[in-house]
Specification:
The chain is of the alpha/beta class. Helix content is about 40%, strand content about 20%. The protein is globular and about 55 Å long. The protein starts with 18 loop residues before the first strand and ends in a 6-residue tail after the last helix. The chain binds S-adenosylmethionine.
């Protein structure tokens, strides 16, 4: 079960540490706990466990309100009790990726880590090439964390990563933070952001119908994204399992798990339970 983690000693290193809201720590708590359950739970069942992060960041971040330095999600995933056999980090910004490399070397020097610089949607071939191909006698299970600021992930990227591989996806669905806020902009016929996000161009008709049933746009998008994932064989998660991260009264995003295996959803429900009941475990 969940381990009590020693707080990570971070000190200023002069490298980039992007500012984040205090809620980023809630997200990290959930990702850290899931990565920990996944890596320990799958250790004896798979020959290789790979952690992939498509929007990796700089490795450290700074809480906007307090100025406090915190570890980013890559470090949380690297410091689990039973580390993954390989880590693959993609980050668009060169200065952030360089900072991440230095910090990974500092905190997890023995980790097998690969780095891909650039937009994940354009670099999906390079990212895929870093994930070992599974075969009989050398099986591979991956956990891919997808953490964009907005709903900018293209479904095609997910499809290509999931093709011919066992991959679970933990995805930040920026439904409140982005989709709701930019609603008027995104629903225009000439805007393709939601088409790309869902991998579908016929959602507008369904949205028109859903409005008659007073469905909220955020809920509609979550359901549509779930349907897109189901086309790849992912078991549709219930909406309530998409963990909402809020800041004060603002609904920012939902962290959603997608897997082809029921066992993953059991881990995820433990995460939900522990993150609400026993926050101290990760403080
Ligand atoms: C929300 S931050 C991720 C932070 C990290 N997951 C964490 O919690 O510590 C999103 C990151 O994705 C990067 N980014 C934005 N668009 C990207 C893209 N298309 N491909 C890869 N990285 C991207 C940004 O530079 C930023 O560092």
């Amino acid at each position: 079960m969940a381990q009590k983690k020693e707080p990570l000693e971070l000190s200023e290193d002069g490298l980039i540490s992007p500012e984040v809201g205090a809620w980023a720590e809630d997200k990290h708590r959930l990702v850290a706990l899931y990565a920990s359950l996944f890596s320990s739970g799958m250790k004896d069942k798979w020959d290789n466990r790979v952690y992939v992060e498509l929007y990796a960041g700089a490795g450290y971040a700074r809480i906007r309100e307090s100025g406090r330095l915190i570890a980013g999600s890559p470090l949380h995933a690297l410091l689990v009790k039973d580390p993954f056999d390989k880590y693959v980090f993609c980050e668009e910004k060169p200065d952030k990726l360089s900072a991440l490399k230095v910090r990974v070397a500092r905190h997890a020097p023995s980790a097998a880590a690969a780095y891909v610089e650039g937009k994940c949607d354009l670099k999906v071939h390079e990212i895929s090439a870093e994930i070992p191909q599974g075969m009989t006698g050398n099986t591979v299970l991956s956990l891919c964390f997808v953490d964009p600021f907005d709903i900018g992930i293209k479904f095609e990227t997910i499809r290509r990563l999931a093709e011919g591989r066992y991959v679970d996806f933990l995805i930040t669905l920026a439904l409140g933070m982005d989709a709701n806020r930019n609603y008027e902009h995104y629903i225009r016929e000439d805007r393709l952001k939601i088409d790309d996000f869902l991998g579908a161009n016929d959602w507008r008709q369904r949205w028109a119908a859903a409005q008659w049933d007073a469905v909220k746009f955020t809920r509609f998008l979550a359901d549509e994204f779930t349907k897109s994932m189901a086309t790849l064989g992912y078991i549709p998660p219930q909406f309530y399992t998409m963990k909402e991260v809020r800041y004060e009264n603002l609904r920012l995003y939902r962290l959603a798990l997608f897997s082809r295996n029921e066992r993953a959803y059991k881990f995820w429900s433990e995460v939900s339970k522990y993150s609400t009941d026993q926050r101290f475990l990760f403080d």
